[in-house]
Amino acid sequence: DFGIETAGGAYTIDQALTAVTDRQLRDIGVTKETMAELVKALLEERKAMEKEVEDAGTFDDLESITIFGGHDKDGLLETVPVTIKKGECVCICGKTGSGKSRLLEDIEYLAWGDSPSGRKLLINGKELSEKERFSLENRFCSYLSQSMNFVMELSCKDFLHQHAFSRGLSCGGDLIEKIMECANSLAGEPLKEEDMITALSGGQSRALMIADIAWLSEAPVVLIDEPENAGIDKDAILKILGEREKMVLISTHDPVTALSCQKRIIIENGGIRKILERTKEEQVLLEELKEQDARLKQIRALIRGGE
């Protein structure tokens, strides 16, 4: 970008350069010939990048993510590679500050040794080129962080329409109704289409975004950072995203959420220490915990209702 404006319309490079004055050229220190070469080289590079991404295809055929090669905060190497397969829901467990969010961020940005953890990611067992990584950012994962705030004054209905439009999707009345129904299955306090998103509570906001991810996002991977902090229905999250065939990774301190996942990644001091598969004994414990959790929900509802 040389900061040079030309009249609107479609021009060849040479035609556009006729509008550039000698003074403008001197100010930026180039000749018309040099500028033409730079613009042509930029266009060729863009075409090559688009072709590379097109040849690589989409993530419709995503079968696995492999995470390896990282280290903890003291530089101790991670010796356990992690492979997550399509349709799996994996829980990330560890103390506060242990590095759970860092692992989610490494996945979101398709890390290749360029994050503080030094981790690398393989997609379907293959390394992505740098151009593929940057071109696929924001399309590979949907990430729901611990803190989020809406800044636009929109109703839930208008927000969903805007989100759908930005993704090139059609969002009719039936789809809006499904998304709102999905959000209300998660949130404690009901949402209505006309509710302003800036007036939603933390739990309502996250419920709306999870429903949005389930029904509008084409990203095959969903990352959720500590959903229990918002007080929404954890079992319903797993059920909804599982039905939408998403690969789900959840950072959590909640034992019910942790044991609801077949696989758990244990993080300590910033490094992956072990991978645990749910045992038969833990399955029995999970059912007991769910009964207790259901009882706590009933008591919580009574207290919130003033009883």
Structure description:
This protein has 307 residues and is α/β, with parallel strands linked by helices. It is 43% helix and 15% strand. It has helices at 13-17, 22-28, 32-56, 100-108, 130-135, 156-166, 173-186, 202-215, 234-243, 255-260, 280-304, and strands at 64-68, 82-85, 89-93, 120-123, 141-144, 221-225, 247-251, 263-268, 271-277. It has a six-stranded mixed sheet with strand order 5-6-7-3-8-9, with helices on both faces. Strands 2-1-4 form a three-stranded antiparallel sheet, with no helix packed on it. Helix 7 crosses helix 8. The chain is globular and about 80 Å long. The protein starts with 12 loop residues before the first helix and ends with a helix. The mean pLDDT is 83.
